Amino acid sequence: MGSLYWMTTIVDRKIAKKYIDLYNETGRTVLFVTLGAGTASSEVMDYLGLDSAEKAVIFSLQEEESWFETKKLLQKKLQIDAPGGGIAFVVPLSSIGGKKTLQFLLEKEDFKKEEESTLKDTTHELIVVISDQGYVDLVMEAARSAGAYGGTVIHAKGTGMEEAEKFMGVSLAAEKEMTFIVAKTEQKNDIMKAIMENAGVDSKAKSIVFSLPVTDTAGLRLIED
């Protein structure tokens, strides 16, 4: 057994069912499905062949061995690398709250997690921005100024208002928007810095930003080429 990954798939809402069906048919555990909105410019949308900004965001768990097979299926059966196909990426989980939680998430009992390790030499990062509702344009203007291609935004409502306000003056109980940006590792610092300077905690957006290592991707080839 190897590592356990949090897998995120972002696709056009119209074709989301094909992805969910594929995951269910092949035994991949789909945990959550939510709606999102693309933020790419019209030029990028045209280039990638995307005719709708409405997205479906699918969250699931993958074991290290199963991800490589999943990636092949996405490329061969659903042509994820083709224009309009979408994007899928995995982020390693560092810890899970107990054995029962692990068994529930994976629906199996034979997974043994490896010891935690520091990730090096990853080529991409997932930048997560949590901001007050209505300020996605401000966040993305800052991100694009530092080289970001685009992102996907979902609506959310946080908890823990009192502690957050005491610590950094941000209410997590208010309506929020979460923006996900996949960027090359060498661009990450510049993008995060631009967001914090122009749409950070001291701005109207009151954004919190952090990043996670993306260990592998499918669907980024055309953007990078």
Portion in helices:
25-40%
Strand content: 25-35%
How do the helices and strands follow one another from N- to C-terminus? EHEHEHEHEHEHEHEEH
Number of helices: 8
Strand order of the largest sheet: 8-5-7-6-2-3-1-4-9
Q: How large is the radius of gyration?
A: 18 Å
Short synopsis of the structure:
With 225 residues, the protein is α+β, with helices and mostly antiparallel strands.
Write up what this structure looks like.
The protein is an alpha+beta fold. The protein has 2 domains: 4-109 and 215-224, 2-Layer Sandwich (Alpha-Beta Plaits); 124-212, 2-Layer Sandwich (Alpha-Beta Plaits), CATH 3.30.70. 33% of the residues lie in helices and 31% in strands. It has a 9-stranded antiparallel beta sheet. Helix 5 packs across helix 7 (185-199).
